[in-house]
Amino acid sequence: QVQLVESGGGLVQAGGSLTHSCAASGFTFSSYAMGWYRQAPGKERELVAAISSGGRTYYANSVKGRFTISRDNAKNTLYLQMNSLKPEDTAVYYCARYASGSYYGKIPDYWGQGTQVTVSS
Prior knowledge:
By secondary structure, the protein is mainly β. It has no helices and eleven strands.
């Protein structure tokens, strides 16, 4: 079955960096678009970044220029490099799979377990 296992969350000071990883299994990773979402306390879950099967990327305005999404199809792994972190980046971060190679206009069909990122000021 489809599994998305995340790692890499934690506590970091403002201005610091973290790298999230999402190990995928149970499907042909290279054929699917993937994304990173986050949910802060009291807020709705929001899309942070997405990458198509062909490598096309999308970023939310709030993270553009600071976060980088990438994928290693040989390792079946999705990454999110987060730089210049701000306290408002504090949230639970989720890895997600879309049902096709494109993320445009799509809703994920599978989710990771989520990992906490806390940015202290």
